[in-house]
Amino acid sequence: MTLSLSRPELILKLIVEQYLSDGQPVSSKALADNVQLAVSSATVRNTMMALEQQGLIRSPHTSAGRIPTTAGIRLFIDKMLQLQPLSGFWINELQRKITPQLPISLLCQQAGQLLTNLTGFVAIVSAPKAEGRIVRQIDLVRLASDRLLLVVIDEDGDILHRVLHCESAIDNSTLSKVLCLLNAALGGGGQWQDGIERLGTIVRSETGLCQQLLQKVLGQLSLDELQQHQPLIFGQHQLLLTPEYQQNPALQQVMEMLERPDGLIRLLQSLTLDDKPKLLLGKESGFIELANVSLIAQRYQSQPQRFIALLGPRRMNYARLIPLVEACARQLNLNLNRRQASP
């Protein structure tokens, strides 16, 4: 599709495209030499001056070159950006790595890790589990006289398995009693969190080795419940390697926000209320910590609401990355629907 642009729009488009490509200020001479313009350097300079007065470009220092502002990049994305089709390699990777056979937690992990691997940026996936998680099965398997394997399976097929090390040998009678109490607390298709609360009550009424074992199980169940309700974040180290991070200490605030992501998750939840891809540039997010980065986000499930997002420097290849995040969300949604439709 060919865009019909005015001269100022075309000049802005060329500035943004060059900046997104190499991060360098664009001079009027470089623009005047562009065959798409066919105008004099004076005309380009006058147009650039007008664009600067409109707040769409700015001079980063005393050089003659200009870079786009957030407003300039936003206008480019909203009016001039032409999205590119996914490469065959990316399509194959999405289909190969995000498959319906995987439990939901692993499906989300695969999607986030793949997005980071393909882009080199930070991927954020909403918590794999929603409230009301159901326990389908719980078991204790003897590995040795003083070691047990805890196995818990939830309704999505996700399996928790943890080795429990005990201070003394566990006789069969104690093992049978503990397993009976665990099934009383968590068995029968009850909710995970409710089961944890019931198990906590049971622990307080027991003594000795039986109580010790139940406390170990309670600790593992509580930790897993906490982890399952935390967002998945991949590729933080990738941000550390970007030239922008090396040159801009303000990006260190992003790392701190990723370590305590509650505010970021609320932002992404409010952003992904429909099935359209969303893009936030810098200060548009309302968070000073995100002033130097961009977020591409897409909802992939409405009930419960789940999203996937990509965070990186403002200088992203939006034409390629927006379709990638969309495709990743579609693949997740497709496979979640296949799982739900399976008998």
Textual characterization of the structure:
The chain has 14 helices and ten strands. The protein is 51% helix and 17% strand. The longest helix is centred in the last third of the chain and has 24 residues, at 318-341. It has helices spanning 7-22, 28-32, 41-53, 70-80, 88-97, 104-119, 172-186, 192-205, 208-228, 236-241, 243-247, 252-259, 262-271, 318-341, and strands spanning 57-58, 67-68, 122-125, 135-144, 147-154, 159-165, 232-234, 278-281, 293-301, 306-313. Strands 7-3-10-9-8 form a five-stranded antiparallel beta sheet, sandwiched between helices. It has a three-stranded antiparallel beta sheet with strand order 4-5-6, covered by helices on one side. The mean pLDDT is 88. A hairpin with a 4-residue loop joins strand 5 (147-154) and strand 6. The chain is elongated and about 90 Å long. It has 343 residues and is α+β, with helices and mostly antiparallel strands.
